[in-house]
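Query structure, 134 tokens:
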């Protein structure tokens, strides 16, 4: 079942996002910029010479935004599902936090303030339980 329902675009974006983050790809990009910069004197630093790097990087950046966003969306869903499963599995956990990502901004802000208060209480409890440091 794993990946069996992946679309062609999903597989492609996952592969590109994976490979584009690898060191060899970075070094190829650096090499391209160095070659372009060193070729500047041969082309007299012309507008066309500048246009080559500007156009190339703009096109690559534009396309990469969509590919990486697709991968991030899929990863976010996977992480959220894992967290929901953990919340559901822990008896003491508040099940109201399952699907919390679908709340409005105001509701999220309220939940965040609530969690901050709980974190402060937990911190106070731990500090009161811990022996005084020498």
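Result returned for the query:
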């Amino acid at each position: 079942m794993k990946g069996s329902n992946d679309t062609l675009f999903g597989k492609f974006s996952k592969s590109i996002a994976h490979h584009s983050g690898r060191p060899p790809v970075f070094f190829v990009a650096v090499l391209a910029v160095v070659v372009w910069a060193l070729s500047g004197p041969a082309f007299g630093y012309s507008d066309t010479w500048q246009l080559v790097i500007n156009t190339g990087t703009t096109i690559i950046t534009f396309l990469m935004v969509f590919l990486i966003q697709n991968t991030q969306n899929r990863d976010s869903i996977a992480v959220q599902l894992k967290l929901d499963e953990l919340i559901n599995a822990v008896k003491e956990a508040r099940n109201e936090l399952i699907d919390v990502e679908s709340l409005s901004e105001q509701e999220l802000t309220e939940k965040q303030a609530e969690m901050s208060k709980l974190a402060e209480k937990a911190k106070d409890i731990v500090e009161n339980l811990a022996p005084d440091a020498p």
